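> tool_call: predict_assembly(chains=three)
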Amino acid sequence: MLDKKNLIKYVFDVYVYSILVFFINRTSRHTEYPVETILAIPPWRLQMLGTYLPILLLVIVAVLFGFVTLLLSSLIGPKKSSRIKLAPYECGCEPVGTARERFSIKFYLIAMLFILFDIEAVFLYPWAILYKKLGVFGLVEMGVFILILFVGYIYVWKKGALEWD
Amino acid sequence: METLFFLIVSIVAIASAVMVIACRNPINSALSLILTFFCLATYYVMLDAPFLAAVQVMVYAGAIMVLIVFTIMLLNIRIDATRRHSHMIFFGSIVGFATLFNTVYIVMKSRAATPATTVNVEALKAGHTELIGREMFTNFLLPFEITSILLLVAIVGAVVIAKKKI
Amino acid sequence: MDTMILGLPMIYYVAMITKVLVAFIFVLLTVAYATYAERKIIGHMQVRLGPMRTGWHGLLQPIADGVKLFFKEEIIPSSSSRFAFIIAPLIALIPAFITFAVIPFGGVMEVAGYKIPLQIAGYYDTVAGRIFDVNVGMLYILAMSSLGVYGIVLAGWSSNSKYSLLGGLRASAQMISYELSAGLAVVSVFMLSGTLSLHEIVMQQSAFNGMNWYIFKQPLAFFLFFVCSLAEINRTPFDLPEAESELVSGFCTEYSSMKYAMFFMAEYANMVTVCALSATLFLGGWQGPFADTFTILGPLYFIAKLYFLMFVCIWIRATLPRYRYDQLMYLGWKVLLPVSLLNIVVTGLVGYFISH
């Protein structure tokens, strides 16, 4: 319930949040690019239509296919259900307890580490396609970035978070 | 045509966002949130930012939501447990309205309020990904390197929380 | 045919619908006959005959299987979460069937004076005089394949059965672990290509004798990507989420009828996508001798490479035993992840010294 300690915590959270928002507003700036007019680049809308409309169509086809298949099979198939038949499978015995048990924290940790390394990968893609243009400068930058994360990786390894026992 | 498409996507986005807080079952809320992220990705594509759209789906829908779904399954929340903590609604709505106000303020003030009349040619020529990369590795080098330290902190934090014993 | 709709000629829309339908049906048929080929090839490798009864040498087997599954009873367990249980196979199936949209399967075809690139998400711009496709093509595939995990985790959770939950959890942890290494393995290809557009990547690998294929420059990346992809789509030797002997089919224990078939279709469609992607990134895609002059050769080369890689997948299944779960996680996190990071660093350094 709402006690004094919690209240202070929430007020503090709102305070920190508003300060953050203030600074983000202050520091965000626009970078200007030279705007020129060259006709060799097709208009934005054509690119949109030419490349993303087919994907949209494919998505619609796939969704329709999925729903129609589900609908057809539920219409055609026989329906002779009984209480025993609808019980979850447990080697033919009566199910014991609930299946929604709490499971190992391992899976949670794997998901957490996946997010962090996935974000690293996301940073690597723009770097990879610019790699030739950035030269030695880009190499050092990314070297530092990977090195710092590699320290984290070694920490995870040494702590035994990757062991499955 | 674009307006019509935008309207359809917006309706889906808002409906799924409402579903996130209206659903009783937390897993269904998580599914609605994934749909909302998808609509956001569609907006990014419409704004000619395909790289951001892909990253949105990859990181938010593909990675962070996996963690949230895992957490929901791990905690196995009973529905009656959500009745308590009603005072959180008060503070939650303060933060929510502050964010809304802030967003409206930024949109009204920035250049986004005035429609662009010229096409950003360099963006089209170089491609969105390359442009982001060039900005990130030159003008925003320090934030980029700090990100790696932030990620390192997060890695350490995740391990410490998960493995208290060691 | 000269009418313009929203700035593009009518023929573009006709071509678009044709490409989408042809590719969709091609993938469906490949999925159906991959099951047949798998049973037949493994059968012959184990000195058996495989399916023989339905049609000539069992050629009608996939159709018989499909029809049979349509007529089976649908069982939704009484203790399951109904909505998630029904939606899970769809979530598994749909991303699997939309990933191949950005993969180019041929050169440029000319119909009635209008050039059509043989790639679903691409068009030929007459003013700029070149092909435009999704310029983050590879990221599109990674993003879509990262959604496949929900189908499995939901299937496992919503069934409310112990086997399903364990299978679903194992599968999702395995998929996200290997997705990471697969995503890192392809970075070194982009360092060479300088683009994420798959059309451009294929064009860079064009050479008469195939010596420009990225597999020769990045053999380790190809190996890493192929292994990680096999694990990500739960193929043998990494098929423990559905380990028949331990988890009674894992996350699909409670599924029956077409819902069960949809998980299988998703798995095989993912296999098609992974093999097509490996062929595109590393084996030159549709490129081959005379493919530029005779457009029809492009799709044929592409299909040949695709089927060869799918044969390799089946071959691996017939050869290797299943991993244990701790070995699997060890391999993913302690071998493949650091090696793929190392590969990026080495590629960077070597590339720098070669260019200077």
